[in-house]
Amino acid sequence: MSYDFQQYSALIENIYEFSQSKSNWYKPLQELRDCFSANYVTLILKPTFENEEEELGLMIAIGSGISAEKKVQYLPYRYHITPFNNQRPDTVFTVDDLMDEEAWIQSTYRKYWCANIGVYHVMSADISTIDGGLVKLRITRPESQDNFSDEDKALCQLLITHLKRALDIHHQLDRSNSIGSMYNEAISRLSIATVQIDESGRILEQNVFASELLLQEDGLKVQGGKLTAHYPNDNRELKQLIADSFKMVSESDRPMLPEAMSIARPSGEVNLGVVVEVIPSPAWQKGTGQGKAVVYIRDSVAKSQASSHVAKKIFGLTSAETALTLQLANGLSLEEAAEVLNIRRNTARAHLRSIFSKTGVRRQTELVRILLNSVAPLACKETDINVGP
Questions:
Q1: Among 2, 15, 93, 190, whose Cα sits 20 to 30 Å from the Cα of 227?
Q2: Whole-prediction pTM value?
Q3: Among the CATH numbers 1.10.10.10, 3.30.1330.60, 3.30.420.40, 1.20.1250.20, which is that of 308-385?
C-alpha cells in the first residue's frame, strides 16, 4: 500500500472536521475508503435493545453499491448475527485473526450478508467512546482484491487513536449544544429575550423571544444589523454600555458584574430592562477584537409562559382553577379574567377561594408571586402559552 504524508494529513484533517459537525460522515469515511482501496466503509453505532432476541444498531455506510446522490446510507444492523462481536476494544483485527479462510467461506454471515454486496476481506475495530459505548468500524474489500496487509492494519491502528478522539469530541460538543439549547429554551420560557452581539453591537444570534420583540420595534430594533434603541439618548447610552462592558472585562482579570440599563418604549408601556454580560474568553484571546456579549432583555408586561399542565400538578388545581390562575398571572383583574375565560364572576370568585385554600395564600398578589417563582414557567410548551380564548 502506498500512502504519502499529504494524503495522511488530509485524512486526519477530515476526521477532526467531522468531530465539529452534526452529521457530516461522508468526508472522513470516503477518505478511509480511498486510503485502504476499500469497496465499503461503515460505522455501526447507537445499539438499542428492543427485546432479548434482537439487538439493533445503526449502520452508516458509504461504498460502491450506494448511489452518488445519497452518498451515505443509514441501515439497521443486527448485532446477534455477526461473528465480530466481543473483540478487544480499540484494536484492529481482520477475519484471519478470528477464523481460517474455509470457516469464513462457509459462515452464514458471509453467505447471506456479505457475498451479495461483494464483501470478502474485512478489517475491523471496535472503538470505545467516552460515554462507555462502542462504535464499530468496518473496512471491506471484494474477493478480487488483495487481503488487508500487516501494513494496512498498522496504519488503521494509528488512525484509531484519532477516530476515537474525534468521536469523543463530537460527543462532548453534541452534549454541550444540547445543554445550551435547553438553557436557551428555559430563558425564553421566562420571557427573557437574549441577543448575542460582538463589540460593535452587531447581532450574531438571537432567540425566538428576542426575534419577536425586535420585530415589534417597541424600544429596541435591528438597524444595519446592529442592536439599536428607538430613542437617540437611549441608543447612545446602550452603545456606551456595550463599549464599557467589553473594556472593563479586557482590563480586569476578575469576573465583572453585568451592566444594566432601562430602555424607553414609544408605545408607553413599562420600559424594557436590559443587561449586558460579556462572554468570558481565554486569556490568550483577549484584545483580539473578537469578543462577544449576551444582551438579556426583559419585557415586564409580557404574558406569563407558565405551563398549565405543570401548574395544575404542583398546586393540585383543577383545569378551570389553573386557567384562572394563569390569567391573573398575566396581570388581569378577577373580573377581566372571568370575561376572558367566559365564566361568571361568582364562578371566578369560587375558583379563587378554592385556589387560595390549595396554595395557602390569601391575596392575588401572593398567588401571582408563587406561580411566577415556581417551576411552571420553565416547563411550558407551545400549547400552554396562550391560555383561554
A1: 190
A2: 0.57
A3: 1.10.10.10
